[in-house]
Specification:
Layout (H helix, E strand, L loop, with lengths): L2 E4 L2 E7 L3 E6 L2 E8 L6 E7 L5 E7 L8 E2 L16 E6 L7 E7 L27 E6 L3 E6 L20 E6 L9 E2 L7 E3 L4 E2 L25 E3 L5 E3 L16 E8 L4 E6 L19 E3 L1 H8 L12 E3 L13 E3 L2 E3 L5 E3 H5 L3 E4 L10 E2 L23 E2 L5 E5 L2 E2 L4 E8 L16 E4 L2 E2 L1 E7 L2 E7 L7 E9 L8 E11 L1
Parallel strand pairs: 1-10, 19-25, 27-36, 29-36
Antiparallel strand pairs: 2-9, 3-4, 4-5, 5-8, 6-7, 6-9, 10-11, 11-12, 13-26, 14-15, 14-18, 16-17, 18-19, 20-21, 22-25, 23-24, 28-30, 30-34, 31-32, 31-35, 33-34, 35-36
């Protein structure tokens, strides 16, 4: 059995034949448990203050390690948790002895914690790996997730990287708010955390085997839509369908599957308990605004060619037909009309104003951060499924195929247009990654831009005192997390006359 620990909860334990009160954190609770003959068991309680939420649990032994929440299968009047000052519930139990405990949720505890796993079951097929571990805590500003990143489902290797236990810790903002400007998620590394304490990455891989391609399209994910990276870390690139349970089996059911590093939740709609492949699990009600370029759709999506540069081959269109989501792959929460005509108050149910949504199409989970991501802890584990570590990388000498103008005079200020080789090794970063610097010899260009993946622009101001002659052009891009900069050099590409 794996380990899970919630630091924020208080517990009361009682036997069915007792009636007593308990004082905890100045909270007085009077509990009554009654049964007359073969009649239904009645559990009642009252509290002095009503700012605490309660969950009723049961077990066959008072020292049991397997406490179950009273839910489907036992008749009850309200959904859990409840927060009324006075409450009574009728239960149907056929056993003469049953132990109960009333779980009191600290009113100051983050409401986000209730969405996380309550059991970390060790999968018997993972006997060669450590048991999964998850620990949750919080302070005034963050809820804190610590995990060893071992799956509770069967681990199936799809990359050369062996699964290894991690020492992850993330601090997620408790009270997210929209930033002035949405922030593009990083190309690699953690962008969100599942409710089982496992990383979620963006919708692309690293430089290898297919430069910044879509791992879902390229079929390098396992049945749960994840795989191991270069550090042996397991992470998802798509909704983790094998981990989602359906408590009620109804068509319109909502579930938080994780939280982004900015604090906003990721929500999935699902229909029923997924099978191992997750084939019929989701009801993809939300439609992304990202559209694949026509040639990419024809060659890659429709005809199975290898995906490369997934971000460069999709464009967000706010007017895409039937789209429901913004450029972040999320939307404001409000009133949802279900198929039976009833109203579902998303904002009240989730206690958020905004959320990201799992989608069947690119970018699948998150495109940009709506809020401000918190980068505390090991949130940038390097690599995708086939990435190797290393320091600064240098590209080949054929990186620059054209430069205009190709020469200049001392004292001139010029706008340089640089065309790059799109097939260089290591591969160019996607278009969204801007160059860290461009220099002609020792002269640093200003006002850098990148109109396309293979074109760069910058302003060159040539000093009067510069030494004349041909100069190398050096282009430095930020590399993936843990890799360092990627440097490309075009030898003797510009002449100062």
């Amino acid at each position: 059995m794996g380990k899970i620990r919630f630091i924020s909860n208080l517990l009361l334990i009682f036997f069915i034949t007792f009636s007593f009160y308990y004082v905890c954190n100045s909270q007085e609770v009077d509990i009554q448990v009654n049964r007359k003959g073969n009649a239904k068991l009645t559990v009642s309680w009252s509290v002095v203050e009503n700012n605490t939420k309660f969950v009723l649990q049961y077990a066959d032994k008072i020292n049991s390690s397997q406490w179950s929440t009273v839910e489907s299968g036992f008749s009850y009047e309200k959904s859990w948790p409840v927060s009324k000052k006075e409450y009574s519930i009728n239960l149907n139990f056929d056993q003469s002895e049953r132990y109960f405990r009333l779980k009191m949720e600290d009113s100051s505890a983050p409401h986000q914690l209730k969405w996380f796993a309550t059991k970390m079951q060790t999968n018997p097929l993972n006997s060669n790996y450590p048991d999964p571990e998850l620990e949750l805590s919080y302070d005034d500003d963050y809820f804190i997730i610590e995990s060893n990143d071992i799956p509770t489902f069967e681990f199936v290797s799809t990359t050369p990287n062996a699964l290894r236990a991690q020492d992850f810790r993330w601090e997620i903002p408790r009270f997210p708010s929209p930033a002035d400007t949405a922030t593009q998620i990083p190309l690699l590394g953690t962008v969100a955390i599942t409710t089982s304490g496992m990383p979620i990455y963006g919708p692309n891989e690293a430089q290898h085997p297919d430069p910044y391609g879509d791992p879902y399209i390229n079929g390098i994910l396992d049945f749960c839509h994840g795989h191991t990276g270069g550090q042996g870390d397991y992470h998802f690139h798509f909704a983790p369908t094998c981990m989602i349970e359906s408590p009620d089996g109804v068509e319109e059911h909502y579930n938080i599957i994780g939280f982004a590093l900015d604090g906003y939740p990721i929500i999935a709609h699902y229909k029923s308990l997924p099978n191992k492949e997750g084939a019929e699990a989701f009801d993809w009600q939300e439609i992304t605004g990202f559209e694949p370029h026509a040639d990419y759709k024809a060659s890659v999506i429709d005809n199975g060619q290898v995906s490369e540069y997934a971000w460069d081959n999709h464009t967000y269109n706010e007017n895409r037909p039937n789209s429901t989501l913004d450029e972040c792959n999320g939307r404001e929460l409000g009133i949802k009309i279900l198929s039976d005509g009833t109203q579902f108050n998303e904002k009240a149910f989730f206690n958020f104003d905004y959320a990201y949504f799992a989608t069947a199409e690119f970018p699948y989970l998150i495109a940009k951060y709506k809020g401000t991501p918190n980068g505390v802890g090991d949130t940038e584990a390097p690599g995708g499924g086939n990435q190797n570590g290393g320091g600064q990388t240098s590209g080949g000498g054929d990186i620059i195929t054209n430069i205009s103008p190709s020469d200049g005079l001392p004292g001139e200020t010029l706008t340089l247009n640089i065309t790059l080789n799109g097939n260089t090794q290591p591969p160019l970063p996607p278009q969204q990654v801007q160059p860290r610097s461009i220099s002609v010899g020792t002269i640093i260009l200003n006002a850098l831009s990148r109109p396309t993946r293979t074109t760069l622009q910058g302003t060159l101001t040539i000093p009067q005192s510069v030494q004349r002659g041909t100069k190398d052009i050096t282009i430095i891009f930020p590399g993936p997390p843990g890799i360092g900069n990627v440097t490309f050099t075009g030898e003797e590409k510009f002449e100062i006359k």
